Amino acid sequence: MSESQRRYVAAYSELFLDGFESGRDVTIDIDELGQREGVNAPPSSFAEEKQQTRFQCKQCQTSTDIIGRHGYCPSCGKRNSFDVLSLTLDALDERVKNPRYSQQERDLRDAEWRTVVRDCVSSFEGFGRDLLQELARIPASPARRKHIKEITFHNPLAAARLIAECFAIDLLKGLGQEDQEFLRRRFMRRHVYEHRSGIADQEYLDDSGDTSVRAGQLIREKSNNVATLIRLVRAFATNFDEGFHSIK
Q1: What is the C-alpha separation between 136 and 139, in angstroms, rounded?
Q2: SS3 assignment, position 199
Q3: Contacts with 86 (C-beta within 8 Å, 6 or more apart), sequence order
Q4: What sign for the dihedral angle of Cα 110, 112, 114, 120?
Q5: What radius of gyration, in Å, describes the C-alpha atoms of the chain?
Q6: For 23, which DSSP code?
Q7: Coil, strand, or helix at residue 127?
Q8: What are the Cα distances from residue 181, in Å, to 11, 39, 176, 229?
Q9: Torsion-angle region of residue 121: left (phi > 0), alpha (psi -120 to 50) or beta?
Q10: What is the C-alpha to C-alpha distance for residues 226 and 238, in angstroms, rounded to an integer?
Q11: Are 163 and 144 in contact (CB under 8 A)?
Q12: Residues 82-123: tens digit of each pLDDT
């Protein structure tokens, strides 16, 4: 509700209650009321104030404005987090299919793939944190709620196990062992790309078990691996989104 609408509702309610409590007949002139409150138009002509993000619900096609990026459809109640993620994944997939740099521009091409991996994982983490924040609103003991809020996706397999324990949502549905390990390693690489310019350190090697690179070496990505990551992240997120919306 806009500030103009709030002022009108407050003034209207005051006049209505005054008439109700006194037992007198009251005539409310909305034009006069608008002028008194410093509003140039009656409430019937107020336009909705545009918020930060406008989205159309993929389920019922309702369009609405929200503050921030994530929100619920006011018509069917579906949360738009997965739709926001999908737009990012589509854009990243396009960058892989139509590379900005040729194979002869190896350093630039390698840097592009590391950037895509970083952005892909970061986008999923934003999506995942949003759904976890909503799940934390479900009535639970303080200890359980704290446990939910502490779930992170640095290790996606560990996060998936905890979410399955708390909410019976299977994020790994349809993902084989090889796919799961691929996903885990790329999520861990995101931290290296974000904070160490792609240079592997011992902590990454110990946590990931990655034997394809040594400490101090620059991690390289191939385009087919980046495409695989986007596909697996989409499947991982689809499972989370479907499980989230199955909760009644």
Answers
A1: 8
A2: strand
A3: 234
A4: negative
A5: 25
A6: T
A7: helix
A8: 61, 60, 9, 11
A9: alpha
A10: 18
A11: no
A12: 999 999 999 999 999 999 999 899 999 999 999 999 999 999
